[in-house]
Design brief:
Structural class: mainly alpha
Largest sheet: none
Order of helices and strands: HH
Shape: elongated
Number of strands: 0
Number of helices: 2
Length: 65
Amino acid sequence: METVTVPKEVFTKILDDVVVLIDDVELALDIKIRQRISDIKSGKVKGKTELELNDYLKKRGLRIE
């Protein structure tokens, strides 16, 4: 495996871009989670219980402890 040398200025720009992307993902997930909670509370969507989620995962081959 080769070693890649990245100048500090380029690496700093990459890190800044990653921070922006992470912030964007955080914001998008926060909005979707708030919408989902609102839908469950208003009755538009039925929420799942932990038992229902465990059964779903077991059907797909995951071992639940």
